[in-house]
Amino acid sequence: MKTFWQVALFVLLQSALFDANAVERIALIIGNATYSQLGALANPSRDATQVEHELAALGFSTKLIIDANEQSLRREIRAFSARSEGASVALVYYAGHGAQINGDNYLLPVDLDAPNRESDIQLSAIKVDDLLVSLKTKVKIIFLDACRDNPVLFRNLSKGRGASFSRGILRRRWSGVTRPRGIPCSGSTARWISNLKNWVT
Known about the structure:
The chain is α/β, with parallel strands linked by helices. The chain is built from six helices and nine strands, in the order ββαβαββαβαβαββα. Strands 1, 2, 3, 4, 5, 6, 7, 8 and 9 form a nine-stranded mixed β-sheet that branches. The protein starts with a strand and ends with a helix. Mean pLDDT is about 75; it is low at about 1-20 and about 160-185.
């Protein structure tokens, strides 16, 4: 079955430009491919490795995680959150399975059991909004390179549950004066990196 991808890039800016004298730029790169029950993915490990290499070349201090289970994913995010207190820019790149429930986006660990209800995802996956709130930097960047078309999730959750479950991760609509500025991206990983370079160089 052909895999479909959708990429969303959210850039939260509380200042007009990146600080040229930034204390530290940090990046957490996650590539989840070998899922036990949701179906393996071909590209996340390769893409995450490429992104890590490119971000390091841009001066980011990087942490690469491949095939993170729930425990390791939560542990690494906690550590990244703590580290963000001393940084000026925090970037998270996630490639893997994702889901959207009631408008909230979730990152799925590789050991997630095939869910039977939406709450199974809400209790075991990582909510993107919670990840954003945990970061203490003025500038927060999140790449979501998430598989949209997961037959296991769609079969188990979409029937008879209205519009609460949606396929994959979608761009979030923001409103108000503090809304993020975003760069929607599509195509190759190289193109996403090129767009990022326009922001940080």
